[in-house]
């Protein structure tokens, strides 16, 4: 009977050691996953900032493209640039005159 107790105690001790090793492995894996999660979160934050920067650049370039298309439509040839400038200057003078009349 004493041998049974010794054998049982030995088996329990072995099980406990295996359980401790497995729990140590689980803790290591958890720490590795936690570290990886932090790195992934940092990368996500960087990606979001980069995405916002690129989106702003796209919007700026689209606006610049619209302005260039509009300028090309208004003045498609070098000869008409002078005419277009003169027309814009006349419109600005007319607007200034109207504003001055409204103020008086």
Describe the structure.
With 104 residues, the protein is mainly alpha-helical. The protein is 95% helix and 0% strand. It is rod-shaped and about 115 Å long. The termini are far apart. The mean pLDDT is 88.
Please give a handful of descriptors for the protein shown.
104 residues, mainly alpha, rod-shaped
Entry summary:
This protein has helices spanning 2-74, 78-103.
Question: Which helices and strands occur, and which strands form pairs?
Answer:
Layout: H1 2-74, H2 78-103
What profile does the largest beta sheet have? none
Strand share of the residues? under 5%
Helix content: over 70%
Weakly predicted, low-confidence segments: none
- How would you sum up the global shape? rod-shaped
Note the quaternary state here. Answer: single chain
Tell me the radius of gyration.
39 Å
């Amino acid at each position: 009977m004493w041998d049974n107790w010794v054998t049982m105690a030995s088996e329990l001790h072995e099980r406990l050691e295996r359980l401790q090793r497995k729990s140590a492995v689980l803790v290591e894996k958890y720490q590795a996953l936690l570290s990886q999660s932090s790195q992934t979160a940092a990368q996500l934050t960087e990606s979001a900032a980069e995405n916002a920067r690129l989106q702003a650049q796209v919007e700026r370039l689209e606006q610049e493209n619209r302005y260039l298309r509009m300028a090309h439509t208004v003045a498609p040839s070098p000869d008409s640039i002078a005419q277009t400038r003169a027309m814009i200057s006349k419109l600005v003078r007319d607007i200034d005159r109207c504003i001055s009349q409204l103020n008086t």
